[in-house]
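Cross-check.
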Amino acid sequence: MFLRKLFSSKNKFTWVLIDLLIVIIGVYCAFLIQNYAEQEKNEKEKNRVVTALKYELEAFRFQMSEISLGMTSYAQQLSSTLSKGDYANFSDFRFIEPQYDYQTIQYSLSLQNSEIVDFELYNTLQSLFVEIKKVEHVERLITETSRRYHTLPSNLDKETSAYKLAWTNNYDNFDRFVTLIEDRGSIAYRIATASENALPLINNRIGETKARAIEKELIINNLDMAKNEDHAVMIAKKFFPRFTEEEVRQIYREQNGEPDTVSD
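Predicted model, tokenized:
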């Protein structure tokens, strides 16, 4: 009796509603599964991108700080020679591209997903990217200027017009070379600063634990730059102040197979 009543024409509308409800539930479940899969994909992509950005930004912060200091000191030496009305041999400067790794920075700027790269991070990375392209341009100009240097034969009479013309060309190009070295130093400083400004945004995304782990790895990978333990402490504390002196000394001794004598 129940089945007959259920399948009667009067209950066809009920079956239509049941079928519709099943379809809706099925579609909703499919949506939930797809949405979950998309969120998982975005989370993996976010972790991959911000981790790679951490490495690139730390490299720029460290490398460009050193370049800035080196170029500033070098430019002062060259300017001293220039102020005396003389020039130095500037023929040995050349840059082979690509000089720098910034693939992740460039990739991040092309992302359309604001959950990975929001407006604040995008603006910071864009400013950094512009400065990187500037330093590449300056390095090309330095290479071109360096190639214009002409060695003057020692037996060439200094009173001849040929000697005077070659000397003047070298002096003029040396003047340009000094300016370009100064430009490279100032741009490198801006790159280091832009990288430093971007890093807190990245650290917030990857978390304190992972940020420290990456920084420890970078300290280990660059220990060969240190002349001794004290020098390693000085370098590490300059660029990774979250590590204490005792922690750096422990890392140094572990990597060099030395017994840890740092007290708790």
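Residues 12-83 form the longest helix (72 residues). The radius of gyration is 31 Å. Passed to J.P. for a second look.
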